[in-house]
Design a protein that fits this description.
Pathway: Amino-acid biosynthesis; L-leucine biosynthesis; L-leucine from 3-methyl-2-oxobutanoate: step 2/4. With 202 residues, the chain is α/β, with parallel strands linked by helices. It is 34% helix and 16% strand. The protein contains nine helices and seven strands, in the order βαααβαβαβαβββααα. A seven-stranded mixed β-sheet has the order 4-3-2-1-5-6-7. The protein is globular, with a radius of gyration of 20 Å. The mean pLDDT is 94.
Length: 202
Amino acid sequence: MQPFNTVSGSAAPLVASNIDTDVIMPKQFLKGIDRQGLDRGLFFDLRFLETGEPNPEFILNQPAWNDAAFLVVGPNFGCGSSREHAVWGLKQVGIRALIGTSFAGIFYDNCQRNGVLAIQLSEAQLKQIASVISDASTARIEVNLPEQTIELADGTVIPFEIDQLRKQSLLLGLDAIGTTLQRADQIRSFESQHLAENPWLV
């Protein structure tokens, strides 16, 4: 995974409540046997008109936010089915972090496993961010994971909390397997000792 340290970019407001994984990644894009092409499916029914043309009213199709690195989202974002494709699609369009008040549990874990930072804030903090980034001229923010801060274009700095194990994994760009392999020497040592003490297991 790509390590997450300090990232700057535009933040797109998408603050409707209960945006589920079928909206994020519709079912017709789940048929492939790999992760390729999921950027096309992301928010498909919102991003495109029935004619297939981009919907000019959708936030990610507007010039200030079409290369957004962050989404500022409404409560219970990522609810619905557990499809990991939703997070894969977000990554493929360049989303590095999500900022909201709450996320569905499985979706939140899928973000962590795939290197997408999911930041949980209070409703008041989220409204403050949304009010600033909704203006194209002040849409850029900086997310500093080591310091656990979000800096807005007007100079406001908002702190956030994160589980320290999740933080370390994101800083190092490690998924669950990578984190486990950091202890490969200890694992091999335990296996050798355990088999020596219990030779009947061989």
